[in-house]
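Weekly modeling sync, notes
Attendees: S.R. (lead), two postdocs, one rotation student

Agenda item 3: backlog of single-chain predictions. S.R. asked that every request posted to the team notebook include the full sequence so nobody has to chase files. The rotation student volunteered to paste the first one in as an example of the format we agreed on. Action items at the bottom.

Example entry:
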Amino acid sequence: MITTSIRSLNALKRWNKNPTEKAPIVLEWFLEWFFEKLLDKDKIKEAIEARETLIEFTMICEKIAKEEATQRVDGNFFYFSGYSTTRWRPKWIALEEQLNRESP
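Predicted structure, as returned to the notebook:
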């Protein structure tokens, strides 16, 4: 099986609607883009949408429940944010707090 890379959120959304490969590569661009282009610019609504899209992708690829996919995605975000504790970790923690406020 040939694996390709998905390099935009729109491409990821398209793949989620019609999965054509078992597991295209996503995380190599997604994590930096998520933190630099969304959280660094305080685009919270867009960050939540991007996170949900990645959770859906993880569910499809790994055939797991949303709760497990959410834990996997958020674990990756938390781990990645540790690479720059002064810049990204506070932003990720702030987003987590926002998500907790919006949860039923």
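Discussion: group reviewed the output briefly. Residues 44-62 form the longest helix (19 residues).
Action items: rotation student to repeat for the remaining queue; S.R. to check formatting next week.
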